[in-house]
Amino acid sequence: MSRLFLILILSVFILFVNQSEVIAQVNYPDAGSWNTFNIDYKINKKLTGLFTQECRIKENFTRLNLFYTNLGLEYKFNDFFKAALVYRFIEKYQDDNSFSFRHRLMLDLTLKKKLGKIGLSYRQRIQAEERDIYSSIIGNLPEWYSRNKFAVKYDTDKRYTPYAAIELRYQLRNPREWQSDNTWHRNRYSLGVDYKLNKKSTFGVYYLIQREFNVVLPQNQYVIGLEYSLSL
Length: 232
What we know:
With about 230 residues, the protein is mostly beta strands. It is about 10% helix and about 65% strand. The protein has one helix at about 1-20; strands spanning about 30-40, 45-60, 65-75, 80-95, 100-115, 120-130, 145-155, 160-175, 185-195, 200-210, 220-230.
């Protein structure tokens, strides 16, 4: 089972890296930063409360992109499988200096496996999002996406843990960009390291590349991420 799990992750990683190169279009590059604060509150051995606050900067670190807040619950079935239900409130800054308000619901199913010092994980996320409900004609029609994330971590037996990840997003239904329905249209590749400050807090830094394709105006984003996590 462990060997099969590893082969599956590596196969999907190679497949979609190659796919993104084949179907790549002319992209518009941009650089920015994502800054995240997480709190995990352990309710009991199985159930954990989740809180996240994030601010994103775009246009070569010069302009606000968005704020979002996550509230959710995570249930750990065993060491191999856990599930989470999360609500996200998004304030996305617009070109006219107004905010677009968005509501997202996410169901995460995560598999984890440890192979010696190497930790493997796969997360399947189904998300539905509504935006501008009271100011847009189609605001009450949700956008549906499937997101698949594969990650590998290396246990150094020290305070720091390096990792690499790839996320593949599939558009199920979007009433505003219906041309991309039922297609893969965004990949994320990231490299990072988490540093354990103490038993309850961790600081992380990562570099992420986001590539879009099969959309009207594809864009490549190059992101520097900073993350602080607190476990209570």
